[in-house]
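2024-03-11 09:14:02 DEBUG pipeline.ingest accepted 1 chain
2024-03-11 09:14:02 DEBUG pipeline.ingest length=180
2024-03-11 09:14:03 DEBUG pipeline.predict start
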Amino acid sequence: MLFNDYCYTGRNYCGPGSVSARKYNSVRYPNQSRLKMAEYIHVVRRALGQLGGHGGVKGLLVQLFRANDVKTGALIGVDKYGNKYFEDTRYFFGRHRWVIYTTEMNGKNTMWEVDGSMVPAEWHCWLHCMTDNPPTTHPPTPKKFLAEVHQFNVSGSAQAYVPYSTTRKKIHEWVPPKAQ
């Protein structure tokens, strides 16, 4: 952090943003009070890179609405479903790897319905920083228990497994009345 919100002036502590804190920090850090022109150019260059990296304003807005985040980075690989995996080490650890989900998976339109279970097992380890080697450079050994074709998470839908019960339901579904 370049500027401290609190400063120690000898007797007491200054509150955040107080006049004495600004005066103390301006004496302590004289060259860091303003952004230099090179830093402004760097900010503008990154903003233009965001626009170009997502395919213009429309692509940037679609990415913002789908993932609630806009990042650009190095494309590490694409899995068998079309998900794209990116990495940028300028972001802090835990946010430096991400996936942009495909818009169609196994015949289902997934443009606005993304799910964390859409990441295959071979990419899960790399995405969650369990390994530094992506499956594009170090393919994993095949496992018998992994599904060949992705199965969607059906929790909360009509296809979800519900165990049989011999007791009566306490809460019943609402069935709308039929129009006459």
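2024-03-11 09:14:41 DEBUG pipeline.report Helices lie at 19-28, 37-53, 56-67, 121-127.
2024-03-11 09:14:41 DEBUG pipeline.predict end
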